[in-house]
């Protein structure tokens, strides 16, 4: 499961889903209260491989988070 980029504690699936649904806004970690954003790499992965049913269910396990709002124009 995805972990906070700051405190490294596991995040609940509902928090990860809220980050996935609004990747540019971020969400506070319930443990350390630092704002977490989806990494551009995860966003690109989600965009490239589309919303297959199994993929949607498994995506929260592969999301990487960051403490900073990502440079969306500089995707690898």
Helix content: 25-40%
**Which strands sit side by side, in order, in the main sheet?**
1-2-3
Helical stretch tally:
3
Structural class: alpha+beta
Distance between the termini: 23 Å
Order of helices and strands: HEEHHE
* Low-pLDDT regions: none
Estimate the global geometry from the Cα principal axes.
globular
Please state the average pLDDT score.
82
Strand proportion: 5-15%
What's the β-strand tally?
3
Radius of gyration: 12 Å
Q: How would you describe the overall organization of this protein?
A:
- The protein has 76 residues and is an alpha+beta fold.
- It has one domain.
- The protein has 3 helices and 3 strands, in the order H-E-E-H-H-E.
- The protein has helices at 13-21, 40-49, 53-58, and strands at 27-28, 35-38, 65-66.
- A 3-stranded antiparallel β-sheet has the order 1-2-3.
- Strand 1 (27-28) and strand 2 form a beta hairpin.
- The longest helix has 10 residues, at 40-49.
- The radius of gyration is 12 Å and the shape is globular.
- The model has no long low-confidence stretch (mean pLDDT 82).
């Amino acid at each position: 499961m995805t972990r906070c980029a700051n405190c490294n504690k596991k995040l609940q699936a509902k928090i990860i889903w809220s980050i996935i649904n609004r990747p540019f806004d971020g969400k506070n970690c319930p443990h350390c209260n630092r704002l977490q954003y989806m990494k551009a790499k995860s966003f690109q992965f989600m965009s490239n491989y589309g919303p297959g049913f199994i993929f949607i269910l498994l995506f929260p396990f592969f999301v990487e988070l960051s403490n900073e709002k990502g440079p969306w124009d500089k995707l690898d």
